[in-house]
Amino acid sequence: MRKWIMGFVAAAMLTSSTGCLVPIYSADPARRAQQLIYTSEDLRSFLDEWERIWFLDQPSHMKPYRTSGLVL
């Protein structure tokens, strides 16, 4: 009988959760919106940070055509 009760409790806990047992975001809608904005901004700025680390954000000095360097 104890196995059945423990199995039922475990099944109820597993089917009632939609992800983790501890939610990552707050239940308050205003605070949850703020947390989601912070999270999305972090992921959005990741590409800029990656380019800055690898020096890919520097301006290109290469021209699409050759110049002689003379001032006209």
TrEMBL record:
Tree of life domain: Bacteria
Q: Which residues form the signal peptide?
A: 1-21
What keywords are annotated for this sequence in UniProt? Signal
**Which protein are we looking at?**
Uncharacterized protein
